[in-house]
Specification:
373 residues; five-stranded parallel sheet; UDP-GALP_mutase; flavoprotein; FAD; UDP-galactopyranose mutase activity
Length: 373
Amino acid sequence: MSKEGSFKKMQVLIIGAGFAGSVVARELAEAEHQILVVDRRNHIAGNACDVKDSHDILIHQYGPHIFHTNSERIFNYLSQFTEWRPYEHRVRGVVDGKEYPFPINRDTLNQLYDLDLDEQGAADFFEKVREPKAQVKSSEDVVLNSVGRDLYEKFFLNYTKKQWGLDPSELKAGVAARIPTRTNSDDRYFTDTYQAMPSDGYTAMFENILKHPNIQVQLATDYKDWLKQDRQYDHVVYTGCIDEFYDCRFGKLPYRSLRFEHQHLADTEHYQSVGTVNYPNDFDFTRITEFKHLTGQQHPVTSIVREYPTAEGEPYYPIPRDENEVLFKKYKALADEEKNVTFVGRLAEYRYYNMDQVVGAALNAVDKILEKK
């Protein structure tokens, strides 16, 4: 096409160097377009950024990121940029000072209630204690409908209050629907076909994604300052908060943030038995993650992180409530009118995406951009 003169190379500005921005950048660069990626932070990889701490332990700066997907396409796509370390994430929930498998499974029931249930017995137990809901509208409805009130109060109620600053009855059903209930003894947090961690870490994978002669990266740069320089771009890809793009003209969209308390334990080889331990009813933090479980590092010492949900700070989670969706749709209506701006990612689409879903959304966005040109 380019030899015939019908192919026009675009100058594309991509705002954000996380999954959405980096994948779009790579695909458009492969299509021979010129890409500038800017990010207000001083690093690539967005919230998936990992670094070696001062004790040589690879840590996730913004809390644990566990890759899992059922999509062969997305797994194979990312496999161009990283080798993988197989890893199946396991979580425990602490109730009355004791650890139990979470998500709730047969072993959770047997240990918690001193029972000896087989799979059918676990199914019968859930059926007996569940509170059937004619209409499942909220996260509270989902859990009560599935496991009943006692398990709801022990594992879900207070954790949700801490995590979201809201009662489960105030959150859309999809939040709790992400967490399964099992009648077998499968204690993996995820059951996806592909479960693995980038063998050299996420940041190294992002470096490979962005390593292309048609891609330039500018860090510690606010995109609004860049646009003020009156530079001309054929297309802009925006991965930040959609309300911020429009100067919050309809009001701020609510997001939930996190404060991370990293700690190095100089005299401990392993702090806990699994990657993450939830504390639904105790402390101000929701969970503790020990990174060596995730990364497979062999080291005589260890590093952990505690997560404290907050209302203020960097936006991490769109808050799934009907009134927030109504506000988002006002911004989306503006975005839909844009001719040369694409909005993609968790913050730009106000969607509680997993990492693989962001990659899928980015690949779909590229297809739409290229169709237009």
